[in-house]
Amino acid sequence: MFARRAATFAPRFTRFASSSAAPRAATRFGVAAGSLAVAGGVAAAPIQAAAPPAAPVKTAAGTKGGIERTFIAIKPDGVQRGLVAEVINRFERKGYKLVGIKAIVPSKELAEEHYGDLKARPFYKGLVNYMTSGRAPVIAMVWEGPDVIRQGRRIIGATNPLDAEPGSIRGDYTISVGRNAIHGSDSFESATIEIGLWFKPTEVFDWKFTHEEWIISAN
Ligand SMILES: Nc1ncnc2c1ncn2[C@@H]1O[C@H](COP(=O)(O)OP(=O)(O)OP(=O)(O)O)[C@@H](O)[C@H]1O
Questions:
Q1: Does the structure's ipTM exceed the value 0.90?
Q2: Active-site residues (predicted)?
Q3: Active-site annotation holder among 183, 191, 198, 199
């Protein structure tokens, strides 16, 4: 997922990332401090000005390394199999927050864009057809919380259900890679793009758990 997104993501990503000035500033300060030490004849270690802390990277996927958001989709086979409540339950029980959800039969364009990096694969056409058939909708969701992108992939399990650990969704409920029930973003960059692809900003909600301190407080 990430590889197929990387090329298109890079230009968009720089709009969000405001930390690129930090390394340049650090280099500039480092050189200046070193020169001063030599000029004054002082046998001291060059003074390095502390680089200003990098601004956190914030996108539609939340704050990288902080409270993140991920795109999770229950595919038509997962919906047909009655796994919607099970999937939601697993993310909710873990402590993650549902900030967006809708049933949607994706257009061919949306499915092709979503799976764009798999274009050359023999199963690509069948994959797009199955996602867009309308024989069941896709349940598209955005989940929020610490490390939710990586943890979401663990909850889902390996792409090929025969490699997925028991206890994961794919490990427990599926046996075919072509009908593996669910999708989850595989990186912050993918999550940024996929949330933007499937959801309008107004369809994703900022809300607070009233019991948040019982889920994410650190002592
Ligand atoms: N060999 C295959 N045969 C049939 N379908 C496949 C095969 N490999 C992958 N797929 C389908 O393409 C989807 C996307 O594959 P990808 O390699 O991006 O894995 P993934 O990121 O784990 O899956 P997803 O994007 O659905 O979460 C898989 O989930 C699966 O439905």
A1: yes
A2: 183
A3: 183
